[in-house]
From TrEMBL:
InterPro entries: Anthracycline_SecMetBiosynth, Glyas_Bleomycin-R_OHBP_Dase, Glyas_Fos-R_dOase_dom, Glyoxalase_6, VOC_core. Pfam families: Glyoxalase, Glyoxalase_6. It comes from Sphingopyxis jiangsuensis. This is VOC family protein. Coiled coil: none annotated. Residues 7-128, 146-264 form the VOC domain. CDD domains: SgaA_N_like. PANTHER family: GB|AAF24581.1, GLYOXALASE-RELATED.
Length: 266
């Protein structure tokens, strides 16, 4: 595959009601979430593909069952980072102060594990099995510019310096440039190769725990913002202009998952 270590290769919505999530993200983003679990999902798990208008996959939706919720799972978005050797990556992360939340295991789609960085932000590491006939294909769920893709990955953390050093060491990311947020501190940009993939920022008092936050591309920020309220979601602030002239906003979907939107004003 063409994916390189540290690339964002998949995004997963954990939700107690994928049918309701399908209606919400369909109205806001334009995605289609399958009406039934994917046939390749392990037995007993309701896992559905999130499909873009161009026919490509934007990620997956995992139904949170009663047992998962009882075990502490909550609605939210998770990211998968590519690694070439899942077991070695997990061992190195654990040795460096990270936490193993789900041991490495194999599925028909690849080998994966869930971990948390030393400050507590969870994510998956994965080496996928490419579809037959598409062995050279890479993931396109992240795009810097395109609507219906995740366009920005933002880490809120208790120790930005330590977090940046951790991801640089284990995933080869770069860190160049920052934006002064006044009393909130620096908003520090991160890169995968030559591509700007997001930023790391100090955790705000209202943030419950260190976490990744993902901004989904939309065709028109005002249309999408109007759709959020109409579809039962909640906006956390008004759209803010960002460098380059586009606008970004954060919100909570009707099932309780935090999300971000970014796009132009038309």
């Amino acid at each position: 595959m063409t994916d390189a270590t540290g690339q964002f290769i998949w995004y997963e919505l954990m939700t107690p009601d994928p049918d309701a999530a399908a209606r919400f993200y369909g109205a806001v983003v334009g995605w289609t979430i399958a009406a039934h679990s994917d046939p390749a999902a392990p037995g007993g798990i309701d896992y559905r593909m999130i499909v873009r208008s161009d026919g490509g996959n934007a990620g997956g939706a995992l139904r949170l069952g009663a047992e998962m919720i009882a075990g502490g799972a909550r609605p939210g978005w998770m990211a998968y980072l590519y690694v070439d050797d899942v077991d070695a990556a997990v061992a190195a992360i654990a040795a460096d102060g990270g936490t193993v939340l789900m041991e490495p295991h194999g599925l028909p789609v690849g080998r994966m594990a869930m971990v948390a960085d030393p400050q507590g932000a969870p994510f998956y590491v994965m080496k996928p099995v490419p579809p037959e006939g598409k062995e050279a294909a890479g993931s396109d769920v992240f795009s810097v510019t395109e609507a219906q893709h995740v366009r920005w990955n933002e880490l809120s953390t208790t120790d930005p310096d330590a977090a940046i050093a951790f991801y640089q060491k284990h995933f080869g990311w770069g860190q160049e440039g920052e934006m002064d947020m006044g009393e909130m501190g620096a908003y520090r940009f991160i890169q995968h190769g030559a591509t700007g993939i997001g930023a790391v920022m100090p955790m705000t008092p209202e943030t419950p725990a260190p976490a990744w936050h993902f901004y989904i591309g939309v065709d028109d920020i005002d249309r999408a913002v109007g759709a959020v309220a109409g579809a039962g979601g909640k906006l956390l602030h008004d759209p803010m202009e960002i460098p380059g002239g586009e606008f970004a906003v954060s919100g909570i979907d009707p099932q309780g998952a935090a999300f971000g939107l970014v796009g132009p004003r038309k």
